[in-house]
Specification:
By secondary structure, the protein is of the alpha/beta class. Helices cover 35% and strands 18% of the residues. The chain contains 15 helices and 16 strands. It has an eight-stranded parallel beta barrel with strand order 7-8-9-10-11-12-13-14, surrounded by four helices. Helix 5 runs parallel beside helix 7 and helix 14 (346-356) packs parallel to helix 15. It is globular, with a radius of gyration of 22 Å.
Length: 392
């Protein structure tokens, strides 16, 4: 600290005793890490008071609602949210984004753990975090420091210069805000209704509580008309372009709709590799057609915060009406929060929600009266069955 006085020094440690605050002060720290999960509410309050008494600042680390309730009465000015659960060491990229929606006092937010490069920093900062805390990754690969700084700068500037088509940078934050609404205390999954081709279908889906509408921009009887997408742009739900990106990138119409704000994000549903997605569109997530455990293992290479799993079909990428084998769905749910597509319909959605507790369900052909047109009765029953499944 004496050698580099302009450098802000964080004591990144498990502080639990009051005298550790004084030690930190005398050693030249500017701020200390206080991990709410490792402290009682009384201990956290006492340590934060000691920190301020020494003229220091604290980065108060949260991970879940229990931590949030400890911190809320103290209203710390600097809050870190850890994507890693320190009990299981499992990382969930969207956990900090979801918890941030419940913070109701003014503070600066820092995203902790799981940051391994440009795209992770881009995601964290565009989701509302002012900075990122990067620990062991630079020890293994020092060059990621530059990548992280570039990702943060791109998010702050709103340029996403490595991305050909920019949609709604706040997509993930807005989606998680829907996930944590008070009326969702029952655990109702997020609902995506895909294959929208007619304005009436989109309006009814939104009226019934759909969180996302999917518009197909690929060769399909469900291919969307850009004019319909623009007409539905003001609905209270998020809109996603379902694409199969070729070597030349996204369909120009998709780019235009993203830039105009009529679409929020991209669902890559083709043969795109992990390195093919970000240069074409942002925000995005990847849909993977699953036929075995190897498919699920390979899906881990994608950097999107969530992976949508769909049934494998050798001829078609989606809208097949096929279901994924139960054992593969269970394996997928063990790996990450479950986003599920493939053969979902009113007759089976209740059992699927009760058994697998997905975070998101995605239906298309199972709700149709004919390809590209939704059946209002099926759509209503589908939403009713989901609600019934989580309120029993």
């Amino acid at each position: 600290k004496a050698r580099f006085p302009e450098c802000c020094v964080l004591r990144k440690d498990f502080l639990q005793e009051l005298d550790e605050v004084e030690v930190s002060y005398r050693a030249g720290a500017d701020l200390v890490l206080l991990i709410a999960a490792a402290l009682s509410a009384e201990e956290l309050s006492a340590l934060l008071g000691a920190v301020h008494a020494h003229g220091l600042e604290a980065l108060v680390e949260l991970h879940d609602r229990a931590d949030l309730e400890k911190a809320r009465p103290l209203a710390p000015r600097l809050v870190g949210i850890n994507s890693r659960d320190l009990r299981s060491f499992r990382v969930d990229p969207l956990a900090p984004v979801a918890l941030a929606t419940e913070i109701d006092w003014p503070c600066a937010l820092v995203y902790e753990s799981g940051i391994a490069g440009y795209e992770d920093a881009l995601f964290a900062v565009s989701s509302g975090f002012g900075g990122v805390l990067v620990g062991e990754a630079p020890m293994r690969r020092p060059e990621i420091v530059g990548e992280v700084l570039a990702g943060r700068a791109a998010a702050v500037a709103g340029e996403m210069h490595r991305s050909a088509c920019l949609g709604n940078p706040r997509f993930w934050a807005e989606l998680m805000a829907r996930r944590t609404r008070p009326e969702r205390e029952t655990g109702r999954p997020l609902v995506k209704i895909c294959g929208i081709t007619h304005p009436d279908d989109g309006r009814l889906a939104a009226e019934l509580g759909a969180d996302l509408l999917g518009f197909v921009f690929a060769e399909s009887p469900r291919r969307a008309d850009p004019r319909v997408v623009a007409e539905l742009g003001g609905l209270d739900c998020l809109k996603v372009a379902v694409v199969q990106a070729g070597p030349d990138g996204l369909d120009p119409e998709v780019c235009r709709l993203l830039r105009a704000g009529h679409l929020d994000a991209v669902q890559f549903h083709g043969d795109e590799g992990p390195e093919d997605c970000l240069p074409r569109g942002y925000p995005y997530y990847k849909a993977v057609r699953v036929r075995d455990s190897a498919s699920l293992e390979a899906a881990g290479a994608y950097r999107s915060p969530r992976i949508l799993i769909d049934a494998f079909d050798a001829e078609r990428a989606g809208g097949t009406g096929k279901r994924i084998r139960r054992e593969l769905v269970e394996e997928a749910a063990e790996r990450r929060p479950l986003w599920l597509a493939g053969g979902l319909k009113p007759e089976n959605i209740g059992e699927i929600v009760r058994r697998h507790r997905p975070e998101l369900v995605d239906a298309s052909s199972g709700l149709e009266s004919e390809p590209g047109r939704k059946d209002p009765a099926k759509l209503r029953r589908y939403m009713e069955e989901i609600q019934h499944a989580v309120t029993l």
